[in-house]
Design a protein that fits this description.
The structure holds two protein chains of two kinds. By secondary structure, chain A is of the alpha/beta class. Helix content of chain A is 34%, strand content 22%. Helix content of chain B is 78%, strand content 0%. Classes of the chains: A alpha/beta, B mainly alpha. The structure holds adenosine-5'-diphosphate and magnesium ion.
């Protein structure tokens, strides 16, 4: 979908004063965030800092306690939108893929276009074919998800999300559940997507992606955005002690080479 | 003591007729019970509390009272409310309502066994709660439930013998009839038992086939 109102608003994603707690446990403590159309933002931070919760609030998988979340200039936190309306604006990629196991790869992709967008089956199948080609999975349209490797499943999950033609794609640690040798193929698809102009917010431990692909890196800790800047600045010259600390534990040499994968080393964070 | 099947073999037509009635009543009760059971199971997990409570209450009553009592209530009790049903209708309705309670509980378990990630994926892909239930969760739940449902089908075929108490000419009743004229009780009920065993075995085998076919998830 295109976002007619996005230009008029502050960004295609606009979050103001977002607070969210579970029971008495405050998880997001006042998030302000604006993302421009076509921007690729990486979100890094220690485990438990609220990154997933933020992504889930951005696609209304979680309700919020206070503040506003607007996508494409439309406030989605007001609760007057159906799930279909939200899905046309934003897609979410899960760490665990969450493909539908009981239907084929093709049907995984076409289900929502047919049921929600009202596409004909023929049209939806064509869309599925072109999306599968885009993620390099053309030969697996008839396979069941469990016949695929994790990397292949995640690529199908990306195709499935794109089938709703969202303006924004959120990724919640899309490669964290993958065997190391399968990470690259998913990152490649994400990089292509970024190059195509998709607005993306990517929670990741893949510092190579954050550095090389994103326009901006956000460091979150303890429910707040501690620091954000272009990757060149954030990685080489972090302003806050907490950011420095986090990066030092991740990257022995903060200015080290690109495409170093660090995901394995920091699982426990 | 000698057993003499020659006394009962001329009466095989009785067994055959009884078997047909047993198949007919069981099949119809399975069908209606399954449809109603899925409905009860879905209500049992509904995001609306009164619906959940209603379904829970239904399951509680069905599981907490004897099937025979339920059948008697429908056939002998309901006329007091002006509802007069034939024995056959009472029997099929009774068994259907009964199996719906058990199947409802199985369905509830099946739905709750579907990972929450499936609900979340369906939701971010735009499906409403009923849509997610219908297209994503329930189909997966039903596949996982097949073995338990198969057991319930077998139970129901056996419980259909209770219909003999409503004078329905099903297999057990046919046995009673043959016994009363031949006095060959042993032989008669060996045959009746063997036919039940055949029916339950065939049902189990059919369901296992279905399980295998569906297992290519
Ligand atoms: N559904 C939930 N119920 C209760 N607490 C939750 C729930 N989801 C997340 N939390 C808590 O919120 C905090 C942040 O979680 P999360 O957003 O998953 O962090 P991150 O993705 O950065 O690791 C954690 O302390 C976690 O235990
Ligand atoms: Mg997380």
């Amino acid at each position: 979908m295109d976002c007619p109102n996005a230009a008029a608003s502050r960004g295609i994603i606009s979050v103001k004063g977002l607070h969210k707690s579970y029971g008495g446990n405050a998880v997001l403590k006042g998030i302000d965030l604006d993302v421009k159309e076509g921007e690729v933002v990486s979100v890094i931070g220690p485990s438990g800092s609220g990154k997933s919760t933020l992504a889930r609030c951005l696609c209304r998988l979680e309700g919020i306690d206070s503040g506003t979340v607007s996508l494409c200039g439309v406030e989605i936190s007001s609760g007057s939108h159906g799930n279909g309306d939200i899905a046309r604006m934003v897609g979410l990629i899960f760490q665990q893929f969450n493909l539908y196991p009981h239907i084929s790869v093709r049907d995984n992709i076409t289900l929502s276009p047919v049921r929600i967008l009202g596409m004909s089956r023929g049209e939806a199948n064509e869309l599925a074919s072109s999306l599968l080609a885009r993620v390099g999975m053309s030969d697996k349209a008839d396979a069941r998800p469990r016949q695929l490797s994790g990397g292949q499943q995640q690529r199908v999950a990306i195709a499935r999300a794109l089938a709703m033609r969202p303006a924004i794609m959120l990724f919640d640690e899309p490669t964290s559940a993958l065997d190391p040798e399968l990470v690259g193929e998913v990152l490649d698809v994400m990089e292509q997507l970024a190059d195509s102009g998709m607005t993306m917010l990517v929670i990741t431990h893949e510092m190579s992606f954050a550095k090389d692909v994103s326009d901006r890196v956000i460091f979150m800790d303890d429910g707040v955005i501690v620091e954000q800047s272009p990757p060149a600045i954030l990685f080489s010259n972090p302003q806050r002690a907490r950011t420095r600390q986090f990066l030092q534990r991740l990257l022995p040499r903060p200015d080290g080479g690109s495409r170093t994968r660090t995901g394995d080393d920091i699982d426990g964070l | 003591m000698g057993f003499d099947f020659s006394l009962v073999t001329p009466r095989l037509g009785f067994f055959w007729a009884g078997t047909l009635v047993t198949i007919e009543t069981s099949a119809l009760s399975l069908l209606f019970g399954s449809i109603l059971g899925v409905f009860i199971g879905v209500l049992r997990v509904a995001p609306v509390r009164p619906l959940r409570s209603l379904a829970a209450c239904y399951i509680y009553v069905i599981r907490g009272t004897p099937t025979l009592t339920q059948l008697f209530f429908i056939y002998f009790g309901l006329p007091a409310l002006g509802i007069n049903l034939t024995a056959m209708a009472s029997g099929i309705i009774g068994l259907s309502l009964n199996s719906a309670g058990y199947i409802g509980e199985i369905v509830r378990g099946g739905i709750e066994g579907v990972p929450v990630g499936q609900w979340e994926a369906a939701r971010v892909l735009g499906l409403s709660y009923p849509g997610a239930m219908r297209f994503i969760v329930l189909p997966q739940a039903l596949r996982a439930m097949l073995p338990a449902i198969g057991n319930e089908f077998v139970t129901l075929i056996k419980e259909s013998s209770l219909l003999s108490t409503l004078a329905i000419a099903e297999l057990t009743m046919a046995g009673q009839q043959v016994r009363s004229v031949t006095y060959a009780s042993f032989e008669t009920f060996i045959i009746v038992g063997a036919i039940y065993l055949l029916l339950t075995t065939l049902t189990s085998m059919a369901l296992r086939q279905l399980e295998k076919r569906w297992d290519v998830l």
